[in-house]
Amino acid sequence: MKPNRSSLTNCCILTIFIFALTSTTLVTVTRAFTTSSILSSASSRTLSSSSSSTSSSLDAVTGVTRNPNFSKLAGGYLFPEIARRRNAYIEAHPDMASRIISLGIGDTTQPIPSHILSGLEQGATKLGTKDGYTGYGAEQGQTLLRQRIASVLYQDRIEPDEVFVSDGAKCDISRLQQVFGSQVITAVQDPSYPVYVDTAVMMGQTGTQDSTTKQYQNIVYMPCTADNQFFPDYASLPRADIVYFCSPNNPTGAAATKEQLTSLVQLCKERGSILVFDAAYAPFIRNPNVPKSIYEIDGAKEVAIEVNSFSKYAGFTGVRLGWTVVPHALKYSDGTPVRNDFNRVMTTAFNGASNIVQSGGLACLDPEGMKEIDTLINYYLENAKLLRETFASIQGYKVFGGTDAPYVFVQLPQGMKSWDAFTHILEKAQVVTIPGAGFGPGGEGYLRLSAFAPRDKIIEACARLKVAL
Ligand code: PL4
């Protein structure tokens, strides 16, 4: 006959009780042992169940087919790749970590000036008051900010309701791709800011990348090199539906003149192309013959969209505030205004820029804010001058840009590859740059240097570059 469970339990309790009477120490040890074995068996159960769930989650798949456009992308996005190589170098040479100077990513480094900062502070403070509190705003941005952008930055050449305030130019480029869809042919300056091409690939506008030419099928690459003063000959290339054009340019630092932009607008009109004009670096323009906006060109409202940003104006790269202008006069072949569809994307896929940040944007456009912006930009332009002078003094290197732009574009000695130059400079001078080839095949043989570092770092980098090259 089997003993029943309660008699067994009673027997155990009795045994423990007897032990407790005879030896307290022994009970303590027994208890400790029992507890620890319970814990260890529980933890090993946890470990084994988690390791089995890890391996099964790694092996598991869903029934969803991967978006085939993503497998067309030939590599990772440029800027994380630069960070990866820099980190790999630091890992291999930890003693060099503190020596690294970044002239790579175009990211601002100087603090936000006081008047503009007070705009951000006021925006935040208002949210803590009954009267000042606001929730969701208009997806297109606050009316006052749209009016101020139109009047201060465009001298009323455009209407406030043609301005869409956003969280930045990069995000707007991506939203424009949503508007254009997968059926358009895109043209880009080569080299160019990689977002235009990469988002076109993601959207399904392209074929795969040719491993020899490094060009994606269905994209019109418009060469911009020293040979054509970095201005493309669009007339000699196949027609595109959408033409991306950035001035002052990233990465070449070239700023297109009024005559050049007039001919581009005219050509886009003749060919029925839409021009997407990226003016993110407009505040750097000092040459009076270089337009700060495409709408300074007659007839541009019928062909051009302009994307822009407070990132470089006021050091808002982390704050996030930009805008896009889509004129009423810009229409598709069936007569539908492009603005309607951009408005549809903004209202459906965006919830408006932060109200705090828009208050900072308004402060930027006050006379004090505009003065502060000018001082900031002059500081970075002085940095660019130092970089220009450095490369001008090194034999075999030719220097471009950096006068109306924060980027200096350096032509390497004949036959030198841009990724090799990047590695050489990182290893010999601990200075991070960006290889021209990262911006497209047309950038091969060039290096981009950003003037956004603090002045002391720029001076130190220049000294090291003179030794290393
Ligand atoms: C690194 C031609 C920088 N993580 O700040 P936004 O979104 O308003 O503007 C981005 C932008 C738009 N148009 C042009 C630009 O050059 C940029 C910023 N480019 C650079 O070093 O090339 C920062 C790049 C950022 C990125 O991934 O874009």
Write the layout of secondary structure elements.
Elements: H1 5-22, H2 24-59, H3 68-72, H4 78-92, E1 101-102, H5 114-126, H6 143-153, E2 163-166, H7 169-180, E3 186-190, H8 195-203, E4 219-223, E5 242-246, H9 258-271, E6 274-278, E7 304-309, H10 311-314, E8 322-325, H11 338-349, H12 355-364, H13 367-392, E9 398-401, E10 407-411, H14 418-429, E11 431-432, E12 434-435, E13 446-450, H15 455-468
Parallel strand pairs: 1-11, 3-4, 3-5, 5-6, 6-7
Antiparallel strand pairs: 2-8, 7-8, 9-10, 10-13, 12-13
The protein binds ligand PL4.
Descriptive notes:
The protein has 469 residues and is of the alpha/beta class. It has two domains: 70-109 and 370-468, Aspartate Aminotransferase, domain 1, CATH 3.90.1150.10; 114-366, Type I PLP-dependent aspartate aminotransferase-like (Major domain) (Aspartate Aminotransferase, domain 2). It is 45% helix and 12% strand. The protein contains 15 helices and 13 strands. Helix 8 links the parallel strand 3 and strand 4. The termini are far apart. The model is unreliable at 1-52 (pLDDT under 50). Bound molecules: ligand PL4. The site of ligand PL4 has 16 residues, from helix 7. Ligand PL4 is lined by residues 79, 105-106, 168-170, 193, 195, 246, 250, 278, 280, 309, 311, 317, 322.
Estimated radius of gyration? 30 Å
What number of domains? 2
- E-strand count: 13
> Could you please say which CATH topology of the largest domain applies here?
Aspartate Aminotransferase, domain 2
Q: What's the CATH H-level homologous superfamily of the largest domain?
A: Type I PLP-dependent aspartate aminotransferase-like (Major domain)
Largest sheet: 7 strands, mixed
Q: What order do the SSEs take from the amino end to the carboxyl end, as H and E?
A: HHHHEHHEHEHEEHEEHEHHHEEHEEEH
